[in-house]
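Input/output pair, single chain:
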Amino acid sequence: MKRGKATISAAAEADYLADVALAARFSELLGRAQAAEQAYRQAQAERAPGSEQYRLARSLDVALTDVTRAAYAAQRAEIGPRGYEDRIYHRKAKATPAVHAWTTEAERLLTLRETHRLTGFPARPEAAALEVAVARAPAGGHA
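Output:
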């Protein structure tokens, strides 16, 4: 067995560089997600038409997906290129505070996106155009 510095494959290096590039855009993508949420909440407060709210909800979903991907890319970039091939190195690196911070942020964003997908979308515009009644749960508690 050869001792010394582990060599990194070209595929791992390429994946690492792609993750570094995406992670570098995290702040920009987070700003877009915040702006999309602001626009969607404003439309809800103004009781905008359903088609407009649906478009803004969809835009928010895309923005949350992009920023979540960037957070997970930042997590992988923080681990380093060796983590793509060496599972033990990957696991040890996940225990560091910097990786914990990115994991927490990525999971927070993922939860926000999933909550939005489950509760934040108005009826699709196509349903209104077809005059299809969309079932709505009563506000308040469960039966």
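Residues 50-79 form the longest helix (30 residues). The mean pLDDT is 89.
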